[in-house]
Fold this protein.
Amino acid sequence: MLNCHDATQLMSEQQDRRLTLSERLSLRIHLLVCDGCRNFGMQMQSLRRFLRGYARGESEEFPPQDDAKNER
Ligand SMILES: [Zn+2]
């Protein structure tokens, strides 16, 4: 089973490469049982969306959330 470090690592890697089936499966199982990493994943998605908007000059649409408290 993945630990939180591995899970967050995989979540950031999956932005850049395709995860293998077993990686995706392990990640999904981890996210089912771990709220912290699930939140992290959602924040990462929001952040990416925000950054994409920001790059196009649409920053108001999606203010970044200052929720880094769940970091482990
Ligand atoms: Zn976790």
